[in-house]
Structure formats: C-alpha cells, structure tokens
Amino acid sequence: MSVKFLSEDYMTEGTTALNGDAGFTGAIANVDLNLQFVVTDGPDGELPYYLHVADGAGELVLGAKDDADVTVSTNMETMAGISKGEINTQMAFMTGKLKVTGDMAKLMMNQGVINAFAAAMSGMDVDY
Question: Would you say residue 122 has pLDDT above 90?
Fold first, then answer.
C-alpha cells in the first residue's frame, strides 16, 4: 500500500524502513544527528519535518526541531524529485534549488548517514 509523500503515514513507515535497514542502522552507530527539512510550495504551504538519529535508531517526525544540527530547505517539486531519485542532491544544492544552513562540518562528517537514509527510503511505495 502506498503512502502519501511527507504525510504522517510516510513518517511512520519511513521510520520503520530506516530502523529495519542494515545499511542505515550500521551507518548511524554512535551518531547523534538532527536534520531539519523545510519543504515549501506544498499543497498546505510550508511543511517542516526532521530526521532524529540517536542511540542507534532513526526517527522521522513532522514538525520543527529546535536543536537541529542542519536545516535543508527546498520546494516540494525538488524534494519529490530527490525522493524519486530523479534529482541529484548535490546538483540541486549547487544550482540553488536546495539550501543548507547550520553545522556543515557535522553534515559532511555524516555523509554516510545521509546516503544510507536515502537508500533505506528508496524502497517505500510513495504516492506523490
């Protein structure tokens, strides 16, 4: 059964997918990371959600995280394209479609977590 992109069900199923993926759980060992995502131009306007990684587990949550290490902002079209694998994240950043603020060193140190996150989420059946 498919889930609506960036819905509460997406967050719940995404959390299950992340914690059931050996690549992701291996990448997050001893990692404490909070990635805030802000998606604009959605059907209901701006949509914040975050990935919280701590104690060997990951969790996707709708809403804002006050102590986020990094904030990634983009529009719905770009975020959906990244999720579908149609848009390269680095290219989106270099062309200004994706803005990143916060602790860039921590983000770069945890690039393996980001890659494992994308890989684990790629198997979900999502309705865009």
Answer: yes
The residue range of the domain holding 13 is 3-114
Q: Is residue 73 part of a domain?
A: yes
- Three-point CA angle 109, 111, 115, nearest 5°: 160
Q: Residue 1 pLDDT > 90, yes or no?
A: no
Residues 6+ apart with CB under 8 A from 64: 36, 48, 50
60 lies in a domain? yes
Q: What is the number of domains present in the chain?
A: 1
Read off the pLDDT of residues 94-119 as tens digits, 9 standing for 90 and up.
Answer: 999 999 999 999 999 999 999 999 99
